[in-house]
Amino acid sequence: MCGDSVFISYARADDLKPPFEETTQGWVTFFWHQLRFELINCGAKQAELWLDRYQIEPAEAFTPKIEQALAQASMLIAVFSENWVQSAWCQEEIDWFGKQHADASDRIVPVYKSDLHRELLPVLIRGYQARIGFRFFTSDDAGHFCADRSRLAGGI
Fold first, then answer.
1. CA–CA distance, 88 with 90 (Å, rounded to integer)
2. In which domain, by residue range, is 118 found?
3. Strand partners, 42
């Protein structure tokens, strides 16, 4: 799968910087950098992790860019959280991706930023996909985040 575009769907609220910590990255930006690092380490330098903040200029119309990126993406990483579930835009992204790919449920990789009840997840992945994925909310030690990050990069 290396060399293909991977679209990251997330809620903007999940990428806010902590207050009074201007040099700290938001959760999603940190995740993007760490996953990019792991992809390079496993030799997948050509894999593109599509994140809107790096692909869309502030004054640019974002809807066509996002629709184009979703159509070209071979995979979608959905960063599931309460914020994601409450975002109509995130729901549209996963619906659009589903319409573009007949086997979309096999191409969606759940990344859980927080624990969610299965009923809150998009219908497209409520079955088998909801039980698998990468959980980053039970990190009792720093090693857990690194292990799941490496496992995810290896799967791409």
1. 6
2. 5-155
3. none
